[in-house]
Write a structure and sequence with these properties.
By secondary structure, this protein is an alpha/beta fold. The protein is globular, with a radius of gyration of 20 Å.
């Protein structure tokens, strides 16, 4: 019986170590779609540097229009920068239908992809803006900031949002747009939420407010919102990790 328990312990330990390895590797996979020829490319480089060196994830950078379907399926998070052409970014993900069905979470500040991804209708940007209004201050995407106005840029820049009604999703922040409509510059859809145009979200979908040239003008609060967005949109570690840890605990308990 002791040999059997020892054998089970070895197997459980192997599963646990393997699971931890998978969990760590998968949590570090961020696919970043960008356009290196765009004038906003230095901002993209700065965001990638922050994701890697501040948040601790590894980033695979892919030019918009290049086939990234395999990388997107294997990643834990796909980020679509606003330097991308929306059509080229969606093409990189295999087309509109494939992008909507992708089971990898997507964070996009190329607002022209929001309708194709089912996040929000009528993508727009309000120019010369500095402030958004936090309305769901208890949500992790609010980064601990209190409800109310928050300056995200030091000087006026584009704040991206959508127009029209949204079938599902949570507005974490709002902005009064150039059309004098109340819009959302941070909107999150959880798995199962209704997508614009039909269907439900297969994974998290986050519309985020950043402009092409946002990094040089981002505030401390804006950075906190960015960090929270990346960390929240990436899913929790794989369940198999918890299974391995639970198996170890169970076997150890039985041996006592």
């Amino acid at each position: 019986m002791s040999c059997l328990r020892d054998g089970l312990l070895v197997v459980a330990a192997f599963i646990c170590v393997a699971a931890l390895g998978v969990g760590v590797a998968s949590a570090e996979d961020v696919l970043f779609l960008r356009n290196s020829a765009h004038a906003g490319a230095p901002s993209d480089t700065a965001w990638v540097d922050r994701i890697e060196n501040v948040l601790g994830y590894s980033v695979l950078e892919v030019e918009h229009g290049v086939d990234a379907t395999a990388a997107a399926a294997a990643a834990d998070l796909v980020i679509i920068s606003s330097t991308c052409s929306s059509g080229s970014a969606i093409t990189s993900l295999g087309g509109a239908a494939a992008a909507r069905a992708l089971t990898t979470p997507i964070m996009a500040w190329e607002d022209a992809t929001w309708d194709e991804l089912g996040i929000r209708e009528g993508p727009q940007a309000t120019s010369g803006a500095t402030t958004i209004t936090i309305v769901e201050d208890t949500h992790p995407l609010a980064a601990g900031l209190p409800a109310g106005d928050v300056a995200v840029y030091t000087t006026g820049g584009d704040i991206r949002h959508g127009t029209g009604a949204n079938s599902g999703g949570l507005w974490v922040a709002t902005i009064t747009s150039w059309q004098s409509n109340l819009e959302s510059p941070i909107i999150i859809l959880e798995p199962g939420d209704a997508l614009e145009g039909g269907g439900t979200a297969p994974a998290r979908r986050l519309g985020f407010f950043l402009a092409d040239h946002a990094f040089p003008i981002i505030t401390t609060e804006g950075l906190a919102l960015f960090d929270a967005a990346v960390n929240y949109t990436i899913p929790e570690p794989a369940t198999v990790t918890l299974l391995g840890l639970g198996s170890l605990a169970l076997i150890r308990r039985r041996r006592r």
